[in-house]
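Before relying on records like the one below, remember that each one covers exactly one chain. Contacts with other chains, cofactors or solvent are not represented anywhere in the record.
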Amino acid sequence: MTFWTATEDQALQPKRKDLFLVQLGGIFDNQDVWWAKSINKPNISYQANAGPQAGTYYMGAGQSGQKVGYINPGGLNAFDPITMNLVDIDTETNPVSRKLMEYMFRSGKSQDYYGIENATRDIGNVFIEQLAHGRDQSRPSRLQAVERWRLYQPYVITANFGDLSYADDNLIDLSLTIGYTGFKVEFISLSGETSAYTFGEQPIEEEQT
């Protein structure tokens, strides 16, 4: 008997990799991106300072004088970028590769495409939800969010539109590599209690709320 099969009052279920939802606001109009095959959660790492600050640590690769976790696109990364793999579908409402190309073309044509503000202008909000089987009997699937991740000031680093081969009849995979300046994660218990944690740079309007 495995450890999650039964207790006195409920079965225990570990979090599963295949229970998740993703949103990419500006690219896919704040829809649930059901054609997302996989995505990384943010990673946190601390690195040792040198010199007079030896024995202390900072997050990521921030430079002297900068806030913890601060980056510039094309510069040092404070957090590891995430990779998102997508299935390429082409319907009237969800032309995936066309929407990605439109985003990259629009961003690349901008004459002032520099800095966090402009780099994140078109991608919008990026949300990742970890789902789990809940106790709400009124919901057919009984799935509910137990983690909500929001990437602060996300920007696309690379977009890969897939490979072709006569020897392979699998689905075409698209992939995005996304950088960000910080993130907020909320952990929600099945009873509804929430704990929230924020790392790195966040938008000014978010700091004021």
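The two ends are 48 Å apart (CA to CA).
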